Structures are given as structure tokens and as C-alpha cells.
Amino acid sequence: MKKSTVIIVLGVAIAGGIWYRQTHIPSNATPLASPSGETETAIPSISLPPTDDPSTPDPIETNPVETSPPTKPVDNAGSGATKPAIAALLADSLPNLTIEKNKDGLPVVTNTSSLYVLVNKKRNLPANYEPRDLVVPDVAFSFSGNSPKKKMRKEAAAALEKLFKAAEKDGIELKAVSGYRSYATQKSIFENNANTKGEEVANRTSARPGQSEHQTGLAMDVSSASVGYGLEESFGKTKEGKWLAKHAADHGFIIRFMKGKETVTGYSYEPWHVRYVGKEVAKDITKKNVTLEEYFDDIASSINRKA
Ligand SMILES: [Zn+2]
């Protein structure tokens, strides 16, 4: 292309451009300068539909997003919660439902023949209560001859036989020392203790008449040759005492007067005194490592929580 032709073409192009701008671009349009030098026309704003249209479902509400895994409802607090079946078993035996004042104003239990009867310094058995199903369990005793203190209630006696057989299988020799005691017998024991050791010691180490578990026919004192069949704290340190603590619950018994719980039970630690409450309850109590008093308190509050 010749130089003159280029000049003509450029001149026509520039003149055309000026003409185009003057005739096509409105005067109120503000050209925007871009960094590259190109010009852009301002874009008028677009009105958007309202976002709060009630006909438009909220996607968050219709498709809820779970931020944590679903949790099952918990019906009892704590990991050691009582199974509902056990709570139901004990519902009629709760301490507040099974107490009344007798004519002398003494608090007496009303569920005397229940396997779950709670007898302690605040809960007396009636003086005339004597279990109707007392039998002598077929176990070794620390003494010979007939005596009411060999007796237990039928179900407890059968369980004691199984407990002693299990011990024998494990090479542990236990002997039964003292089971059922009538109100009258307990009265003379307590009075004798009070006379010889003083009332304070007697109160801590023996029950007043009406307040002994031995009157229920559900308790047995157990000992071994290693402590001369004595009922003493050292029994808890013998292999027999340790075996008993470990296996009593398998056969429905609890160590009733625990170490460190003297203020709850009102009695010194008695590793020799086992009380029958049935396997289910005994296992639960032992697992929770609580006294019968504390256990009932827990059951009562768990039932109240549900009510
Ligand atoms: Zn005892």
C-alpha cells in the first residue's frame, strides 16, 4: 500500500469515528475509563425479586442439616443407672412407702417379709415378727447342735448353699456362724453388750432389738478357720473374706456393712455379715459399690425424676 493511500484511509477512518461518536453516543452517558484505555458504558442497576417472598420455602428449614449425631433419650442419669426392670422390682419396697409409726411412736417397717426389706436404726421390725419359712441351710456351721441361729428364710438358705458350694469349688472353706435371731434373742445380746462394753460400743457393734437384719431371716454371719471363725474385721483381709466380697453377689448376697460407710449404715464395717436381696439387686448394688440405704435413695430419686 502506498503512503498516500494510507493517509487517506486513516483520514477517512478518523473522520468516520468522529461522526459516529457525535451521532450515536448519548451525551449523558459517562464513559468509564478502564486501565486498558477501553471505554465501557455504565450498566443500569437491575431490580431483583424480593428475597422474603413467603411462597418461597426456606431451604434451611425444609432440609435441616444435622450438626451432631442424634442422641438416644437417657432415662437415668449417670453410667451406673438402675435398669428399669430392677427399679420396677423395688418400686413397692421404697423406704418412704414401707414405714409407719406403731402405737409407741416407733417407726416400724410394713414390708417385713419382703426380700427387699430395709431394716436399720431408723427402721424397726415389729417385736412379734418372725419369718414363716425358716429352714436350716445345708452348709457347714462353726458350731454343732440345733439352734435357731442356724436358720434362714427358705430362698436365702438355698442361695447360701450355692454360695458355699461355689466357695468349696474354689478351694475356699467358709462356715456359717449366725443366722436368724428373734427379737428376744437380739434384746438379750444388746443388753449384754451394753452391760459389758458400754452402750456406745454396743450401739455401734450390735443392733438394738427390732433393728437387726438377723430378725429378717435374710442375713448370715460367715467366717473361716483362718480367724478362728471369729466375727472380726480381719476376716475381710483373709482369702476367704476376699472371696466372699467378690462372689457374694453372684448368689444374691451383699456385704451389708461396708468399710467407709459407717455413717450411712450406723454400724462398723462387717466383712462377715451377708444379707440376701436376690441376684439382680445384689449384683447391681455391688457394681455400684453403695449401701442398701444409698441404693434405695438412688432408686427413689430415679422414680421421682420420671414421675
Ligand atoms: Zn450379722
UniProtKB/TrEMBL annotation:
SUPFAM superfamilies tied to this protein: Hedgehog/DD-peptidase
Source domain of life: Bacteria
Composition skew (Low complexity), residue ranges: 43-62
Annotated InterPro entries: DD-CPase-like, VanY-like_core_dom, VanY/YodJ_core_dom, Zn_M74/Hedgehog-like
CDD domains reported in the protein's UniProt record: LD-carboxypeptidase
All residue ranges annotated as the D-alanyl-D-alanine carboxypeptidase-like core domain in the record: 150-279
GO biological process, one term: proteolysis
Region listing for Disordered, in residue ranges: 30-80, 194-218
Gene3D superfamilies reported for this sequence: 3.30.1380.10
Compositional bias segments (type: Polar residues): 30-39, 203-215
GO function terms (MF aspect): peptidase activity
Pfam families (UniProt xref): VanY
Cross-referenced PANTHER family: D-ALANYL-D-ALANINE CARBOXYPEPTIDASE (PTHR34385), PEPTIDOGLYCAN L-ALANYL-D-GLUTAMATE ENDOPEPTIDASE CWLK (PTHR34385:SF1)
Protein name, UniProt field: M15 family metallopeptidase
